Amino acid sequence: MNRVVTHELVHAFDHCRAHVNWFTDVRHLACSEVRAANLSGDCSLVNEIFRLHFGLKRHHQTCVRDRAILSILAVRNISKEVAQKAVDEVFESCFNDQEPFGRIPHNKTYARYAHRDFQNRDRYYSNI
Known about the structure:
mainly alpha, globular
């Protein structure tokens, strides 16, 4: 349940922050789906083992890309090739955008670190 709520809250954050055009620009949708798959825990090692999809090299990126494509296909009536092209166009920048967490919360410990970083955010920039 936490993953689903986090996934949807990433979409809500994108909607408020980036003014995503959900219905006309598939690249906006692709970017939000990449971010949601990356930050929600959809591609955690435990989940991937349960799905019997796991690898050693760059597996997290592959999983995020695949989950984003599947999410786009679930909500849009477009071909898989169009969805893949949209994800490929935005993947690098959207995968590296980790706001509002500042890091990928792979587990509860990383989520606590992200929350601590958020609480201390003003300390580091107060003297600029």
